Amino acid sequence: MADRTSIPRRHFIVGAAGTACAGAALATGASPALAQDGALPDYVAWKEPDAFVRHSAQTLETRRSEIGSLITPNDVLFVRNNLPSMTAEEVGEPEAWTVSVEGVAEPRTMTLAELKALDVTQVASVLQCSGNGRGFFEHETSGSQWMTGAAGNVVWTGVPVASVVAALGGIAEGARFMTGTGGEKIPEGIDPLTVMIERSVPVAAHERAILAWEMNGEPLPLAHGGPLRLVQPGFYGVNNVKHIKRLAFTEEESQAKIQQTSYRVRDVGESGAPDQPSMYEMNVKSWVTHPLMEAETGRVLINGVALGGAEDLAGVEVSTDGGASWAEARFLGPDLGPYAWRPFVLAADLAAGTHRIASRATTAGGTTQPEEFPPNHRGYGHNGWSAHAVDVTVG
Amino acid sequence: MADRTSIPRRHFIVGAAGTACAGAALATGASPALAQDGALPDYVAWKEPDAFVRHSAQTLETRRSEIGSLITPNDVLFVRNNLPSMTAEEVGEPEAWTVSVEGVAEPRTMTLAELKALDVTQVASVLQCSGNGRGFFEHETSGSQWMTGAAGNVVWTGVPVASVVAALGGIAEGARFMTGTGGEKIPEGIDPLTVMIERSVPVAAHERAILAWEMNGEPLPLAHGGPLRLVQPGFYGVNNVKHIKRLAFTEEESQAKIQQTSYRVRDVGESGAPDQPSMYEMNVKSWVTHPLMEAETGRVLINGVALGGAEDLAGVEVSTDGGASWAEARFLGPDLGPYAWRPFVLAADLAAGTHRIASRATTAGGTTQPEEFPPNHRGYGHNGWSAHAVDVTVG
After folding, report:
1. Is A5's CB within 8 Å of B221's CB?
2. Separation between Cα atoms, residue A265 and residue A133, nearest integer Å
C-alpha cells in the first residue's frame, strides 16, 4: 500500500504531532502508544501506514493533513474499536451473515443476501468518534487523545432500516428505542454487559438508519464492521454498531455499560449515569486542514472541512487573526447532503509572522460553533473553534 | 491489495467474460491479452487484481460487476494509456512539476505548487474511453474491445483553468482551441506527431476544465496522469491529457495524429480526417451492473449506472423483457452534478426463465439512448441500449 500512488505522500503529511496542541496527546495517553512508523496491526494492514497517528492497536487517528477531501478514502479513514474487530473466520461467508430483527410485527432472522434483495440506498455521512477533539480539552480526560482525525466522510450503501421494518409488518407497539447489538465474541468469565457493544437510539432515528454492506464502493472491511453495520447518519460513531447481529425495537434502552454509563455527558468528576445525555446527534463543527504549520508570504489557500451534524450548513467563516475578524469561505464540490461534510477554501494574503487560523461553521438552522466548549468528564463532543485553531508561521 | 477488505471479493465479481457478448471481445483483440489472473503490471500493481478484464498491459477494463458504486475507487478504475505511463523518476519532485501556459496575455510556466496556491475546486465527472462499448459493435473494429468497463466516476481536485487564465491576463485574441500536451517521452527515431498525446478542444470548454492533482482524495497516481492532468468534465477520456506539460490557447487544432485523424467518427472503411467529428462530449448512456447472469425467482434489485454526458439526467428506465415494456428506476444517493453518473435501482419480480434486462437513460434536455447505435469505423461512442442489455437466467 505504501506504493499505492507511486507518488511519495510525504508532501501531504503534516502530523497532528506538529500542531501546538500535540502536547496534550503525549501527556495523557491511557493505552500504550504504537510506534509511529512501520507496519500497522494485521487487521488494518491494508491501510496507508503514513496516514495515521497511532494511539493504540485499536485507535488510529487520521493525520490532520490527510483529511481534507470530499470523501475520505477507506485506507485513510480512522479506526476505533471498543472490542477487537471480528476476524474473517468468525464472520464466515459474508452473504450468509444473519441479523435478527426483533420488536417488529413479524420478527425474524435475515441474511445479508436477503437484505441485499430487499432494498438499497446510498447515504453520505460523517463517521466521527464521540471523543474526537478530546485532546483539545485542558482538563485531563481518559480515553484516546484524538485531535481532529477521528472523523471521515463516507458514502455508505445498504438497505434502509425503514424498508426492513416495512417488510416485517412495522414496529411493535410501545417501542421507544432502536437497539443494535454487535457480533463480537465476548471473552469467557466476563459479564457480557460490561463489554458488549449494544447501543440504543431514539426510535425515530430508524427513519434515516441503514444496514450497510459497502463503504465508498468497497465491501465493508472487517475493521469497519463488515460484513454488515448499522449506520445512523448524523449520530456519533458509537451508535453505528459494527458486525450487527441483532436489531431490536425495544421499550427500554440497552442494559449494556456502553449505553447505561459510557458515552454520557456530565461534569468533570461525575460518574456516568442513564439520566445524563447520551452521545447521539453530532454538533456543528469545522477545522482547517491546510496550512497547519508553515506557509510562504503572499497568497495562500486555507482549506478545511465543515459538518452540520444532521443539518445542512449555511456557511463557514475563516479567521487569520485568531478570531478578531472573519471572512466567509467558499464550499468546494458537490453537496452530499445534511449528514456529510463539505470541504471549504478561503484565499488569503498573509504577511510574514505567525497567524492563528480558525474556522467557524454555522448550520442552516442558525447554530454556530462556540468559541470555547465547556469541559465534560470524558471529553466528548468538542466543537469550540478556538481550540481547533492552528498557529501558522509565514515567511 | 488482494487482502484489502479482508473479505473475499469473489462474490462481487462476475466478469464481462460471462456475458452473452463476450465473444466479440475474444474474437478481435488486436493486442496480446494478458493473463486474467496473477500480478498486474508494475505501474498498476497497487490496483485490485481481480477487478479487471485484462486486454493488454496498457488497457485494463473494470469488470461490469465491479462498477456500480457512486464513486469508482481508484484501485478499480479502468486504465488506458496511449503511451506508457511516466515513471516517478521521469516525473521527479511532484510539487516542482511545471506546465507551460501559452496563448494567454502573460504566458508563463507554472509549478504545481503555484497552481495549488492559486485556486482549487472539486468536480465529480465520469472518465470514459471513447471506445467504451466497442465490443458491442457487430462489425470488426480495431482497438481494445471494451464492453462497459472503460468508465468510472471520479471526484477530481484541482485548479479551474479559468482561474489560471484570469491570473495570466486572459486568453489571447483569436484562440479557437485549448490544446493540452502530455509530458510522455517520445522514443527517438519516431516522428513525434505520430505518437505524442496532444489534444485540442473548443476554447469554450476551458470554462469547465481543471488542472487536477488529486483523484478521489488521493494524490493523482502516475497511471492516471500524475502529478497533474487536464480534466475536461463531460468529454471523453482522450481529452483529459495526462502528465500535462503545456496548456496552450491556439488558433488551430494540434497537428498530432491523435487530434488530426484519430478519434474521428466516420463510416466503416473510411480513413480518419480532420473534417470529421472529433470525440468531444460524451453522449447519454446507462447500463445494468447487477444482476448480470443469474438471479433467483421472486424479488430482485436491478442496479446500474447512468450518465448524461454533460447534462443532468431526467431519469432512467429499466426493462426486463428486452425493451417491450419499461419501468422508471430510482436514483440512489446524492446527485454529484451533470458530469457525474448516478447509480440507479429498480425492484422487479422475476419468474423462472431468461429475462433480457436493459436500461435507457434520458437527459434533462430530452435526449434518450437509442435502441441501436450506428456502426462507425473505430467503434466509438456506443450508447445503444439493446446491445448493452444482459440475459439473466432466473430460477
Report:
1. yes
2. 15
Cβ contact, residue pair A227, B7, below 8 Å = yes
Determine phi and psi for B389, rounding to 5 degrees.
-70, 155
Q: Taking Cα atoms as reference points, which of A150, A149, A133 lies closest to residue A385?
A: A133
Distance CA A10, CA A66 (A): 10
CA atoms lying within 13 Å on the CB side of residue A274: 11
Residue pair A329/A346 in contact (Cβ under 8 Å)? The answer is yes
C-beta atoms of B218 and A117 within 8 A: no
Mutate one of B3, B6, B296 to test the A interface: name it (highest A CB count within 10 A): B6
Q: What is the pLDDT of residues B6-54, one digit of tens each?
A: 333 322 233 333 333 223 333 333 445 677 778 899 999 999 999 999 9
Nearest-angstrom CA–CA distance, B295 and B301: 10
**Residue whose C-alpha is closest to residue A146's, from A162, A128, A133, A130:** A133
Question: Chain B residue closest to A45 (CA)?
Answer: B4
Q: Is B318 helix (H, G, I), strand (E, B) or coil?
A: strand
pLDDT one-digit tens code per residue, B357-394: 999 999 999 999 999 999 999 999 999 999 999 999 99
Alpha-carbon distance B343 to B334, whole Å? 10
Q: Do A333 and B218 touch (CB under 8 A)?
A: no
pTM score = 0.89
Cell numbers found for residue A202 = 431514539
Residues of B whose CB is below 8 A from A218? 4-5, 69, 73
Name every chain B residue with its beta carbon within 8 A of the beta carbon of A300. 117
Q: What's the pLDDT at B20?
A: 30
CA-nearest residue to B217 within chain A is: A69
Smallest Cβ–Cβ distance between B46 and the set A3, A117, A340 belongs to: A3
Q: What is the pLDDT of residue B29?
A: 38
pLDDT (0 to 100) of residue A32: 56
User: Is A171 within 8 Å of chain B by CB?
Assistant: no
- Rounded to an integer, what distance in angstroms lies between the CA atom of residue A181 and that of residue A158? 17
A241-270 pLDDT, tens digit each = 999 999 999 999 999 999 999 999 999 999
In angstroms, the CA A237 to CA A143 distance is 15
Contact B216 A69 (CB under 8 A): yes
